[in-house]
Amino acid sequence: MSFPNMSSIRLSLREHLDSDANDYYNLLSDESAVRYYGRNTIDSLSEAKSEISALHTKYLMSESIKWAVILDAKSVYIGSVGIKDFTNQHHRGTLSCIFSPRYWHFGYASEALKLVIVYAFETLKLNRIQAYVDPINVRAMSLFKKLGFSCEAILHEYEFERGRFIDIAILGLTKNK
């Protein structure tokens, strides 16, 4: 099964490669990058390599697709976007994205997610995509709203992160809206 590569004016989205391990480690070991990503930082390059291998396996098993986001002008890894839980009877999936803080505020997340949204609706034939966002993450809330998502609910004290319970906003977008 061939991995679905995509591109825009400034970005290429492709499968994570073993050669991305250092960049992937740098991204996921950066506390400011993972602060709202719903996970802890990683501790080693070997953990990054294991995760990249797991991404490939999850793709082959149709559990998720996670693209490496490459800034074409510099041929540099700047982040990752993905969609998971898309093989279900309900025709929906959940988006995720994480970018290196040095590439925030340039519109790269929006550009990459637009490609993933089109892929989700046109290729995966989903009817709905959603994102789970910490509502205090104003940049992410704004990003998804600019992409057409609406905030459908706030799940109070839904996740336990960094020693405390946090709220999570569910943002949704359907194919026909």
From TrEMBL:
SUPFAM superfamilies: Acyl-CoA N-acyltransferases (Nat). It comes from the Bacteria. This is GNAT family N-acetyltransferase. InterPro entries: Acyl_CoA_acyltransferase, GNAT_dom, N-acetyltransferase. PANTHER family: GNAT FAMILY, PUTATIVE (AFU_ORTHOLOGUE AFUA_3G00765)-RELATED-RELATED, RIBOSOMAL-PROTEIN-ALANINE ACETYLTRANSFERASE. The lineage of its organism: Bacteria, Pseudomonadati, Bacteroidota, Bacteroidia, Bacteroidales. Pfam families: Acetyltransf_3 (PF13302). Residues 11-167 form the N-acetyltransferase domain.
